[in-house]
Amino acid sequence: MCGAKAGGPDLAGVDVANETIIQGSVTRNDEPVNGYVRLLDENGEFTAEVPTSATGQFRFFARPGKWTLRALVPGATVDRQVVATQGEFTEVAIAV
Amino acid sequence: MSRSDVLVDADWVQAHLDDPKVVIVEVDEDTAAYDKNHIRNAVRIDWKKDLQDPVRRDFIDQAGFEALLSAKGIANDDTVVLYGGNNNWFASYAYWYFKLYGHGDVRLLDGGRKKWELDSRELVVEQPQRAATQYTAQPADSSIRAFRDDVVNAIGTLNLVDVRSPDEFSGKLLAPAHLPQEQSQRPGHVPSAKNIPWAKNANDDGTFKSDDELKALYEAEGVDLATDTIAYCRIGERSALTWFVLHELLGQENVKNYDGSWTEYGSLVGVPIELGN
């Protein structure tokens, strides 16, 4: 297993200009962590969840606005607030 | 029926990993997840390749279900324990198939793959070899499946529970936010549907909330549990989880899962749609 990669998984075939993408990676001591990332809306309501990839990456196709990312890994839960914009990548590196 | 008849915890599964009459089955949205690793002795059912009709939009028929379970080495008298990623979305969907085709003893692993992983329990790569069986399925039980006309006729009459996220319900998103939003159908929801996202049924670790918490949730949202209910989402897998909660955990008698869900309803010509909350 190599180290954590920046950014999200491959975007081949996705119309990036029309998407509001939130992506990033979850690491512990700079190494990728296998776990899950939840996307919660501005009211704290669950919107989506993805497992991290083998390289610790995750990605959501959201809408413009405020979101909370919640990383769930063995023994830890970490929240991060983000503001996402259509046509842009909102990059989030989460260290647990 | 008690909760333990339909739901088992990770310790129970751990204790039955080598029980020849317990078949553990992984069903994931990400159908490649099993290849990475899985619970020891678990077999895989692929919700795309194994559970769908290869030509029409429909799921496999009785003969197809019999052939599938026979090939997987599942016998009629086996206890089947289903689990998967995404808080058991697709495991719940498969559970609904098993009930639809009359399997006697089928249960979900509470928390699914996520809880198992967060507990740092053993996962392996080796795939088990199970001898083929001669599985016999029952005719499909249509009392737990809703079709589009059932949904249209239920508007303003029966409980309609839209289990998608608030942004999908209101029409801001057309798909769950981990998928690209490229869909052709109209956004929104079926008029009179209550938005009770599937996630409200579960804790963060994917385990189901208690029966009392679940009952309070539906009552607080104005769902009369004495009235017939149809649950839907985008393609019927998240609503299978809500169907499991209402029908299997809370014991509500007449609950149907609408597996056509929003990808069908949102593409129908002339049916009523509401936008907003």
Automatic annotation (TrEMBL), chain A:
Pfam families assigned = DUF1416
InterPro entries on file: DUF1416 (IPR010814)
UniProt source species:
Kitasatospora setae (strain ATCC 33774 / DSM 43861 / JCM 3304 / KCC A-0304 / NBRC 14216 / KM-6054)
Name of the protein described by the UniProt record: DUF1416 domain-containing protein
- Species lineage, top-down? Bacteria, Bacillati, Actinomycetota, Actinomycetes, Kitasatosporales
UniProtKB/TrEMBL annotation, chain B:
User: What's the protein here called?
Assistant: Sulfurtransferase
Do you know which InterPro entries this protein is assigned to?
Rhodanese-like_dom, Rhodanese-like_dom_sf, Thiosulfate_sulfurtransferase, Thiosulphate_STrfase_CS
Which reaction does this enzyme catalyse, per its entry? thiosulfate + hydrogen cyanide = thiocyanate + sulfite + 2 H(+)
Lineage of origin = Bacteria, Bacillati, Actinomycetota, Actinomycetes, Kitasatosporales
Query: Could you tell me the superkingdom of the organism this chain comes from?
Result: Bacteria
* Region spans: Disordered: 180-204
User: Which stretches make up the Rhodanese domain?
Assistant: 18-125, 154-274
Q: Which Pfam families match?
A: Rhodanese
**GO MF annotation terms:** thiosulfate-cyanide sulfurtransferase activity
Give the UniProt keywords, A-Z: Repeat, Transferase
